[in-house]
Design brief:
binds zinc ion; about 10% helix; Metal Binding Protein, Guanine Nucleotide Exchange Factor, Chain A; about 140 residues; six-stranded antiparallel sheet; alpha+beta; 9 strands; 2 helices
């Protein structure tokens, strides 16, 4: 059975059309999240963010990554070695670059394109979730 995804306001966001997304996202967010774009490296606002908190999907607000798993990969994009919990992101093969197959990372809540998954990350997982800064909304932990 297919279930209906809803955000915190009860709005159904999983079946937004491109036009509806265009209204709620900036052009840069729309390009990355809905058109599988990639922001230029070392430009994202959250790349160097080291504050404690959670990184949420900019489209639907679902928590995706914790500052606990964020590290400096030197790649120019925010990098994490694991999602905040199981099932919040989906991965699938990205064939758009021909023979060079990459694994795409998407938000499980709204199918937003987030970035790519590589297997050159640090312990304990050895994985690197390489995520576009514009696809994320940072929510600092209350001290
Ligand atoms: Zn989402």
């Amino acid at each position: 059975m297919a279930t209906t995804e809803s955000n915190e306001n009860g709005d159904n966001v999983s079946n937004h059309s491109d036009d509806e997304w265009r209204e709620v996202l900036t052009p840069e967010q729309f390009h990355v999240c809905r058109q599988q774009g990639t922001e230029p490296p070392f430009t994202g606002l959250l790349y160097e963010c080291q504050d404690k908190g959670e990184y949420h999907c900019v489209c639907c607000g679902q928590p995706l990554f914790s500052s606990e798993a964020k590290y400096d990969s030197g790649s120019g994009w925010p990098s994490y070695w694991q999602p905040i919990s199981d099932g919040v992101v989906q991965t699938n093969y990205d064939m758009t670059h021909g023979i060079r197959v990459r694994i795409e990372v998407k938000c499980a809540g709204c199918q937003a394109h987030l970035g790519h998954l590589f297997s050159d990350g640090p312990e304990p997982t050895g994985m690197r979730y390489c995520i576009n800064s514009v696809a994320l909304a940072f929510v600092p932990t209350d001290q």
